[in-house]
Specification:
Elements (H helix, E strand, L loop, with lengths): L1 H9 L8 E5 L5 E9 L9 E7 L5 E7 L7 E8 L3 E5 L14 E7 H9 L3 E7 L4 E7 L6 H17 L3 H4 L5 H4 L2
Antiparallel strand pairs: 1-2, 2-3, 3-4, 4-7, 5-6, 5-8, 8-9
Length: 180
C-alpha cells in the first residue's frame, strides 16, 4: 500500500508545465519547456514551446506547432492589448524539434516570452505555407492558456539559471539581442 502511495506521488501531472534544465557539453546552461496549447476548443489548437541557452542569453527559440495539420507554420503575429504587435516571419537557424506535427522555430527576444507570460490580453494568428491561418487567444481578462503557464514556468527557470531577478529581465532584451 505504501509503495502505491509513493508511486502516485511520483507520477507527473500532465497539467503542469514540463520544464527541463541542463548544462550542455560546452558548459552553456539550457532551459526548455514542452509544448503547451493556447485557449481554444479545436483539436488543431496551436502549441508554443521554448528553448533558451546562456550562450545567447537575451534570445529564446520559440517553437510554434499546429497539431492535426499537414501545412508548415510560415509566420505568426502576436497581438497584445490594443496596439502592440510582434510579427515573426523568419524561421530560426535552429530546427524545430519533431513534435509529430508541423512546427517552426523562431528566434525571439526574451521580452516576447515575458509578454506571452504576463500581458493580460493577447492573441496570435498563425499562418501556414498552404495559405491558411489559425487565430486563437493566448490570454483574456478571464482565462489564460496552458501556454501562459508554460512560459511563466520557463521564465522562472531561466531566471534561476541566470541568477537574475525577474525585474531585471523586464523591459530589456529586444531586437539588438537577436543581432549578437
Amino acid at each position: 500500500m505504501a509503495a502505491l502511495l509513493l508511486a502516485g506521488c511520483a507520477a507527473t501531472d500532465s497539467r503542469l508545465p514540463q520544464v527541463q534544465q541542463s548544462i550542455a557539453p560546452d558548459g552553456a546552461k539550457t532551459v526548455a519547456v514542452a509544448p503547451r496549447s493556447l485557449l481554444c476548443e479545436q483539436a488543431y489548437c496551436p502549441t508554443l514551446s521554448a528553448h533558451w541557452s546562456s550562450q545567447r542569453a537575451g534570445v529564446v527559440v520559440l517553437v510554434i506547432g499546429l497539431p492535426f495539420q499537414t501545412a508548415k507554420v510560415s509566420s505568426a503575429d502576436f497581438h497584445f492589448g490594443r496596439s502592440q504587435v510582434v510579427r515573426l516571419r523568419v524561421a530560426s537557424d535552429e530546427a524545430a524539434p519533431d513534435l509529430g506535427y508541423p512546427a517552426t522555430a523562431f528566434d525571439v527576444p526574451i521580452s516576447l516570452i515575458d509578454a506571452l507570460a504576463y500581458k493580460p490580453d493577447g492573441w496570435v494568428r498563425v499562418a501556414t505555407d498552404a495559405g491558411t491561418a489559425v487565430q486563437e487567444s493566448v490570454s483574456t481578462g478571464e482565462a489564460q492558456s496552458d501556454a501562459v503557464d508554460g512560459m511563466r514556468a520557463f521564465l522562472h527557470a531561466v531566471d534561476t539559471a541566470t541568477g537574475t531577478p525577474p525585474q531585471a529581465r523586464r523591459g530589456g532584451a529586444g531586437l539588438f539581442d537577436l543581432l549578437r
